[in-house]
Write a structure and sequence with these properties.
There is one protein chain. By secondary structure, the protein is of the alpha+beta class. The chain folds into three domains: about 5-115, Acyl-CoA dehydrogenase/oxidase, N-terminal domain (Butyryl-Coa Dehydrogenase, subunit A, domain 1), CATH 1.10.540; about 120-230, Butyryl-CoA Dehydrogenase, subunit A, domain 2; about 230-385, Butyryl-CoA Dehydrogenase, subunit A, domain 3, CATH 1.20.140.10. It is built from eleven helices and eight strands. A hairpin with a 2-residue loop joins β2 and β3. The chain starts with 6 loop residues before the first helix and ends with a helix.
Length: about 375
Amino acid sequence: MDYFLSDEEKALKEKARTVAETLVKPVHCELDEKAEFPMEIVKEMGRRGLLKIFIPTEYGGTGARIMDMCIACEEVSKVCAGIATAYAVNALGSGPIVLFASEEQKKMYLPKIAVGELLCAFGLTEAQAGSDVANLQTTARKENGHYVLNGVKQFISSGSLSDVYVVLASTDRSRGARGISAFIVEKDTPGFSYGKEENKLGIRASTTTELVFEECKIPAENLMGKEGMGFIYTMRNFDRARPGVGAIALGIAQGAYELALDFIHQKNLLNNQYIQRVIADMATEVEAARALIYATARMIDAGGKNFTKEASFAKLYPADIAVKVTIQAIELLGPYGLLGEYRVEKMLRDAKITQIYEGTNQIQRAQIAIELTREMGTKHRAQKV
């Protein structure tokens, strides 16, 4: 379908596709097998301007548009969702700085993130606080002009390989979610170390690590915004990041569909009516996922104020479609689909992760239901008036 991309968006799409075909494709299977982070590829993406799309123009970026993020993530993910995640986590990590940091903090970090000089990660998840963000146990106490962090973050993408982290910690445990604050923490800060590196089912080229804080002292000016605002910052950051996760899932689905279509064409199976039905459904659902993601991205970029529901749509549906389409692709390839050299089994492993990270699909359904209930309540109140 024609989504009427601008000339700039078409150029970005072509640039991301070139990177995927020339840099990612030759090494992605090896990196997946070794669970090796694509540091040189991510740095090269920075040199080619692909990290600038996460950053506003006044700090050396190209505008921090959600549509740009979705276009780039989709193209890279068609070849490798692990490398796409290693790239896209810089959007998740820099997002709170873009949205909520002070002018001094923005000037300090964003220009360097834009060119790949600094890689950025987001430190939220803990063993007891994954979907339940308000239950995080990491604390930050203020003393003598510093904050002292203690706790362990788990399942942090690019955890041991980033240069700067946005870390969520409780400054007042008695207030629950309203006591959570956000901090900027640089690597090599005394008291900050890395723990276990996870051996994952999918997106294996995206390193996932524990962050460990033991009496980690950071300057008081590393607080982002105000104390107690971290939960709100996190939710707003996720609302902007989730269409990008949907785009990674979309890229997986598109890549699997194209591989399956090429395979059955080579095997002269396109006249089989069963296969025709499966291919038609795959193509329709992939296109529906793309339309949903692009519409959501356009809505956010146009200045939409409340897009939590739509952001959940744009993560939930493409992730489910990615799993469905990759399974169908494997079935169409038959025993070949089980072989690593055909790449589809990797796509299924990667697709499953998209249903889980950055808010499980079960949580997305719960969030959508909450938003629908809120909208219904608002509608009924308006009718009574």
